[in-house]
């Protein structure tokens, strides 16, 4: 099944804004002019995607973030120069759409800068009809999946902890992710083997 292209992202000209809420915050992987704290209304950050590739396998899935409907999400908006627009979209599709679990969309985000301006940004929203959509899982089930998850971009634990660190650097907290991070730290002595994160992952 081909990736679902966002015509407005491709056909627009000028600089491109990209909204990052997970690993894009700490490992964007593309060139940008500036990054600005931002808020997206209408979807929230959730560990709601079974990872069959970057942080797990179909046999032993991990768990990664998606934008799921309802609420709001704080993250980072990256501004990409117009000349790099097409190449950046291609890169993000190759990174985010390996299994087409996300829908590529343009969303309004509010920049948390002096101007407090609203911009249209490229974002990746979970497809609730996809087999990898996990829905709302208990913290204990999230912990189990994250502890077992390991894929071509590294182990799932590093993914979660790196995201929490990035969130803290932005000056806020994500209560659900922070609770999971505490559980992962508490469980660390039982899981001494660690694999450094080495690739790219989810938005």
Question: Which whole number gives the mean pLDDT?
Answer: 89
Q: Structural class, judged by helices and strands?
A: alpha+beta
Helix content: 25-40%
Spatially, the strands of the biggest sheet line up as: 1-3-2-4-5
Which CATH C-level class is it? Alpha Beta
CATH 4th-level superfamily: Gamma-glutamyl cyclotransferase-like
Characterize the biggest β-sheet: 5 strands, mixed, barrel
> Kindly, what is the distance between the CA atoms of the first and last residues, rounded to a whole number of angstroms?
20 Å
Q: Count the strands?
A: 7
CATH architecture: Roll
Residue fraction in strands: 25-35%
Oligomeric state of the chains in view? single chain
The DSSP helix count reads: 6
Structurally, the number of domains stands at: 1
Question: How big is the Rg?
Answer: 16 Å
User: What would the principal axes of the Cα set say about the shape?
Assistant: globular
CATH topology: Hypothetical upf0131 protein ytfp
Account of the protein in words:
The protein is globular, with a radius of gyration of 16 Å. With 203 residues, the protein is α+β, with helices and mostly antiparallel strands. It has a single domain (7-187), classed as Roll (Hypothetical upf0131 protein ytfp), CATH 3.10.490. α4 (139-148) crosses α6 and α5 (156-169) crosses α6. The chain is 29% helix and 32% strand. It has a 5-stranded mixed beta barrel with strand order 1-3-2-4-5. A two-stranded antiparallel ribbon has the order 6-7. It contains 6 helices and 7 strands. A hairpin with a 6-residue loop joins β4 (102-111) and β5.
């Amino acid at each position: 099944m081909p990736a679902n292209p966002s015509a407005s992202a491709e056909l627009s000209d000028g600089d491109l804004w990209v909204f990052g809420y997970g690993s894009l915050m700490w490992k964007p992987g593309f060139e940008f002019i500036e990054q600005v704290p931002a808020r997206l209304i209408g979807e929230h950050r959730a560990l709601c995607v079974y990872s069959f590739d970057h942080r797990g396998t179909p046999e032993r899935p991990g768990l990664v973030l998606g934008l799921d409907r309802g609420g709001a999400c704080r993250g980072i908006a990256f501004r990409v120069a117009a000349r790099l627009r097409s190449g950046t979209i291609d890169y993000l599709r190759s990174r985010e759409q390996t299994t087409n679990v996300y829908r590529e969309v343009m969303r309004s985000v509010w920049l948390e800068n002096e101007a407090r301006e609203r911009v249209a940004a490229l974002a990746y929203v979970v497809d609730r009809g996809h087999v990898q959509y996990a829905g709302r899982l208990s913290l204990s089930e999230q912990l189990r999946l994250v502890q077992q998850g390991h894929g071509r971009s590294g182990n799932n634990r590093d993914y979660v902890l790196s995201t929490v660190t990035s969130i803290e650097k932005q000056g806020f907290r994500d209560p659900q992710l922070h609770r999971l991070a505490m559980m992962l730290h508490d469980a660390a002595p039982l899981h001494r083997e660690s694999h450094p994160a080495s690739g790219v992952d989810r938005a």
